C-alpha cells in the first residue's frame, strides 16, 4: 500500500480519546503528515490539530482522509458514510483501519469509482500467510504484552525502537495493528488474519535476521481478555520473543469492554512466560511500561518506584519518563549494542 500524505483525520463522533487512538497515534508519531481533523457533532476526542471541513482540507493540500477511529468489532457506522463520500467527491483518497471494507459499501465504492479515488483497507492484507511453524530463527525479538487492550503496547514498542537506535542497537518496529501500519508504512493487522494463520503471519512479519538485530513487535489485546486472548496467544507464539515488556494502565479495575477484573502484572508475567516458552524456552520479562497519564507527578513517581522495587525490573512510563532503563536492562541481559 502506498497511502499518499498529508492526511485529514476523521474522528467521527467517538465517545472518548481511546476510541480515536488511530488518529492520535498518527499525530504523535507522524505529526508532519497531519494537516487537520474532521469531527462530527458530539465527538469527545481531539487529536490536537486544526478542525477542517473537507473543502478546507482539500485546499490545504490534503491527499488522503484517514478514518482514525475504532470501535468494538471494527464496524463502520452508517452515519459516517456521508462524510467519506464527501471526501471522495472532493478527490481525496480514503484509508480505514476498520474491519468493515470501504468498498463493500455501495455508496462509498461508487463515489470512489466516479472520482478516480483510491480506497485503502489497511486491516485487510492481500498477503497469503502459512501456518506458524515455531522453528527457532535468527535475530532477537521483543514483544509488548498487556494487562488489557489499549494500554500502550504500540507506544512502548515505538519508544523502544527510537531509544534503542539512539543507544546503537539495530532495531525495527513491527506493526501488528492498523495504527502501527499507518505509522510505519509496513505491517499486518493481526486481528484480521484467519485464526489458523496468526502465528505464521507474525513469523512472516519478523523473519530471520542478523544475530544482534532486534525486532520490536507491537502487541495486541491481552492473554487475559476474553475477547482478544486468541489473537494475543497467536501473536506470542509467532513472535517467539526473547524478551517482553508488560504494559499496564493503573487506574482500571476491569478490562475494557467486559466485566472481568484486570489481572495483576505478576499474573501477566507468569502466563506470558508459560505460554511463550512453547516457541522460546528462554523468554523473559525485561521491564514494565505503565501509562501514568491519569496520575500527578508525585503519584506517578511513587507508583513506578514501587513497581520496580516489587518486581526487581525497570518500570517506566514511555511518554513521561522515557524507556532508557528498559534499554539498559536489555543491554545488561542480552549484551550491549553492536
Automatic annotation (TrEMBL):
SUPFAM superfamilies: P-loop containing nucleoside triphosphate hydrolases. InterPro entries: DgcN-like, DgcN-like_C, DgcN-like_N, P-loop_NTPase. Residues 131-327 form the D-glutamate N-acetyltransferase-like C-terminal domain. Residues 40-124 form the D-glutamate N-acetyltransferase-like N-terminal domain. It holds the Pfam family DUF1611_N. Transmembrane segments: none annotated. NCBIfam families: DgcN. PANTHER family: DUF1611 DOMAIN-CONTAINING PROTEIN (PTHR40690:SF1), GLL3100 PROTEIN (PTHR40690). This is NAD-dependent epimerase/dehydratase family protein.
Amino acid at each position: 500500500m502506498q497511502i499518499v500524505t498529508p492526511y485529514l483525520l476523521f474522528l467521527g463522533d467517538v465517545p472518548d480519546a481511546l476510541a480515536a487512538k488511530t488518529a492520535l497515534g498518527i499525530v504523535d508519531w507522524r505529526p508532519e503528515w497531519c494537516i487537520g481533523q474532521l469531527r462530527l457533532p458530539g465527538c469527545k476526542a481531539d487529536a490536537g490539530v486544526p478542525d477542517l471541513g473537507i473543502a478546507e482540507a482539500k485546499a490545504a493540500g490534503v491527499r488522503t482522509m484517514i478514518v482514525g477511529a475504532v470501535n468494538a468489532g471494527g464496524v463502520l457506522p452508517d452515519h459516517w458514510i456521508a462524510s467519506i463520500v464527501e471526501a471522495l467527491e472532493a478527490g481525496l483518497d480514503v484509508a480505514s483501519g476498520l474491519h468493515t471494507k470501504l468498498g463493500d459499501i455501495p455508496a462509498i465504492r461508487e463515489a470512489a469509482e466516479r472520482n478516480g479515488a483510491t480506497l485503502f483497507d489497511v486491516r485487510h492484507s492481500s498477503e497469503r500467510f502459512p501456518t506458524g511453524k515455531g522453528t527457532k530463527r535468527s535475530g532477537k525479538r521483543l514483544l509488548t504484552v498487556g494487562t488489557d487492550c489499549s494500554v500502550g503496547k504500540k507506544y512502548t514498542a515505538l519508544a523502544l525502537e527510537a531509544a534503542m537506535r539512539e543507544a546503537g542497537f539495530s532495531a525495527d518496529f513491527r506493526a501488528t495493528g492498523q495504527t502501527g501500519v499507518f505509522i510505519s508504512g509496513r505491517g499486518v493487522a493481526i486481528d484480521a488474519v484467519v485464526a489458523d494463520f496468526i502465528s505464521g503471519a507474525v513469523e512472516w512479519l519478523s523473519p530471520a535476521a542478523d544475530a544482534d538485530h532486534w525486532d520490536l513487535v507491537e502487541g495486541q489485546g491481552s492473554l487475559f481478555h476474553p475477547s482478544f486472548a486468541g489473537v494475543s496467544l497467536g501473536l506470542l507464539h509467532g513472535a517467539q520473543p526473547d524478551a517482553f515488556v508488560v504494559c499496564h494502565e493503573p487506574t482500571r479495575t476491569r478490562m475494557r469492554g467486559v466485566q472481568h477484573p484486570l489481572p495483576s502484572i505478576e499474573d501477566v508475567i507468569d502466563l506470558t512466560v508459560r505460554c511463550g516458552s512453547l516457541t522460546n524456552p528462554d523468554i523473559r520479562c525485561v521491564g514494565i511500561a505503565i501509562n501514568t497519564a491519569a496520575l500527578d507527578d508525585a503519584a506517578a513517581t511513587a507508583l513506578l518506584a514501587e513497581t520496580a522495587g516489587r518486581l526487581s525490573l525497570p518500570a517506566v512510563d514511555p511518554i513521561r519518563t522515557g524507556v532508557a532503563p528498559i534499554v539498559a536492562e536489555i543491554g545488561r541481559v542480552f549484551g550491549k549494542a553492536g
